[in-house]
Design goal:
It is a single chain. By secondary structure, this protein is mostly beta strands. The chain has a single domain, classed as Quinone Oxidoreductase, Chain A, domain 1. The protein is built from 1 helix and 8 strands. The strands form 2 sheets. The protein has a 5-stranded antiparallel sheet with strand order 7-3-5-6-8, with no helix packed on it.
């Protein structure tokens, strides 16, 4: 899958678009195809290494804290979600990685997309911007 990767901690360092292995899901995980993500201040601070003592990602790693997407597959213990469900999430610390095509997320971190939202969230848009 394609993902934007941090190769090393560096203030205002560029992310590199590269191929990464597809995520592996555990028994309590859900594999989500990401349709939308957001850039937030936490991402730039993680990239810069400001939180590496508290949230120690080992480069190379994928940034991204927020997602909206569609469930691809669920782990053996997951009962609340099924393939095709539209979901949103903020993956827990050390599970970031929404600047990618897919992510494995703990089911406890996911929520079903409210049915009251319009179909606009289903249209996949890719927007790139430096952090």
């Amino acid at each position: 899958m394609k993902a934007f990767v941090v190769n090393k901690y560096k203030k205002k360092g560029a992310l590199r678009l590269t191929e990464m292995p597809d995520p592996v899901i555990g028994a309590n995980d859900v594999l989500v195809r990401i349709h939308a993500t957001a850039i937030n201040l936490l991402d730039s601070k993680l990239r810069d290494g400001e939180f590496k003592l508290f949230v120690p990602y080992r480069p190379p790693f994928i940034l991204g804290q927020d997602l909206a997407g569609t469930v691809v597959r669920v782990g053996a213990n997951v009962r609340k979600f099924k393939a095709g469900d539209e979901v949103y999430a903020r993956p827990r610390d050390l599970r970031a990685g929404t600047f990618a095509e897919m992510i494995a997320v703990d089911a406890a971190d996911l929520a079903l997309k409210p049915t009251s939202l319009s179909g606009l969230a289903r249209k996949r848009r890719v927007v790139t911007r430096s952090l």
